[in-house]
Each structure stands twice: as C-alpha cells, then as structure tokens.
Amino acid sequence: xxxxxxxxxxxxxxxVLILLCSAGLSGCATKIIxxxxxxxxxxxxxxxxxxxFDLYTTDIVQATRFYxxxxxxxxxxxxxxxxxxxxxxxxxxxxxxxxxxKDKAKGSQWLSFISVRNTxxxxxxxxxxGATKLIAPKDMPDRGRVAxxxxxxxxxxxxxxxxxxxxxxxxPTNGYWLGAELWTHDVDAxxxxxxxxxxxxxxxxxxxxQVRYTQLLANAIPRCGVVSIPWEDVSPQWVPYVAVLDIQxxxxxxxxxxxxxxxxxxxxxxxxxxxxxxDPTGGILGxxxxxxxxx
Length: 295
Prior knowledge:
The strands form two sheets. An eight-stranded mixed beta sheet has the order 2-3-4-1-5-8-7-6, sandwiched between helices. It has five helices and 16 strands. A hairpin with a 2-residue loop joins strand 2 (74-79) and strand 3 (82-90). The chain has 295 residues and is of the alpha+beta class. Helix 2 (60-71) packs antiparallel against helix 5. It has helices at residues 16-22, 60-71, 119-128, 187-198, 247-256; strands at 50-57, 74-79, 82-90, 93-100, 109-115, 132-140, 144-150, 156-161, 177-184, 201-208, 211-218, 221-228, 237-244, 260-263, 274-278, 284-289.
C-alpha cells in the first residue's frame, strides 16, 4: 500500500488535559457544552455503532474553514462568548464538535464515540482487558454517560450511553459519517478486545494483498473495520470515515484548501474508492466514495 512520505504518529496522552477540561474537571476555565448525540429522540439502541466524532484541533478557525470547503459542513458556537468550541452541522443536524486546544505543538486528533448500553460496566471491562483509563465514566448534560480510554494497543476511543438513544442508520450520504476504522499492529488481539467488549462478530474481507482487513458487525450490521498497519512509524488509532460522491473531486478540494493526502485511491483497494488525508491542523480522516445505485 502506497502513501505519501509522512508520519501518521500521534500520542493519545496529549489529549488528556483537553478531555479533562471538556468534562469540566481539573480546574479548567473553559467548560465545553456538548449537544445530544441525536436531535431526533427515537430511543434507538444501536450498540457498537460509532455515533459521534470530536476534532481536537490546534486552530479552530483554520479547521472549520477547511471542512466547510471540503464537505460543506457548517459550524455554530456552543457558547456565544467563546469561539473555542463549535458544533459541526451537516444539513442542520449536529454531528460532532470542533474543540481548540491550547498546545499548538502536537497537532490535532479525532476522538470517536462508540454507542454502548452501559458505559460504566464496559469501562470497567475494558480496564480488566488491558485498556488504560483516561476519563472515568461521567454524566455530561444532554450527551449522556461518557468515558474515554486507550485500548491495549493505545488506540484512543470513547464509550457513550445516550439517554435519547442513537441516530438512526441511514444510507450513505455525501458529506456524512460512514463509520470508523481501527489501524492496529495486532489484528487478532484488537478483534478479541472489541468483540468481547462490544459484542462484535468478525468477518474477513479481501482488500489488499499486503493488508489484513476485518469488518466488525453488531447485530449483523457492519459497524467498523480493523486493518493491519503495514508501516512501523504509525501508531494504532481510530480513523473516522466520511462518505463522498466523487473521491477525486473531494481530494482536489482537500489539496486546494491546505490538506495533505496520505493514502491516495488505488485500484487494488476497494476499486480506488478510498483515501486518507490530513487536514491543515493535523487531523486524520478517511473518505470512501459510494454510488447511490448500490443502495
């Protein structure tokens, strides 16, 4: 698998202070106001689904301009008196947050939230299975019960139990979340950890001769992927994916607005319909082209 010359490394510990601030802890002056997981309270329980994504960025102005240009996302302040935290809106629906971090030296990072039935129980189970605590379960108004951990290979993720339920499954839509993919050095260990924790079942898929790819399903519905990392300088991490109608057009916008393409479309990987890029502040995101007639 080819990629542009760069390191995709990040240290998850750089987010600890920001995450503590977002939980209103540690004496931080800024308290992040977070919206509910879904604005449509249907009471759906979709365990294992990735239901929310937050971008912790070194430059919120640059990041919001970039994603507006690339995906036509819009943004609104959570606090009229501060522009340091904004909701991401897709077609007037809140789908994530962008949060500016004070330390500009270590780049940006997306945090992915997995829907679970009982945050406390799964948090404790994760620790018993070798995960590391970053934030213990905490009630966040509107959002629900949230915890943040590192899996045994130090990939960062969050657990969330929403009092309103989860956003309904929808067909792929241009500019909307498609899911998430775990990059890991030990696929078998990762599958065992998340299958035990969330209840996923695993299904191997032929993607590339040099890369092992496994799809994780919950209640027979694909929820995420696990891929072996073919490079030594890449740390385990969850990478969110966005659906796009035209991958080449999207990548052109990425480059035109200061992003960097890390993995370009290759015909031997999903028929050239996937790519990975880094936004101008360092956040890593995947895109996958879909064809409406397939759904």
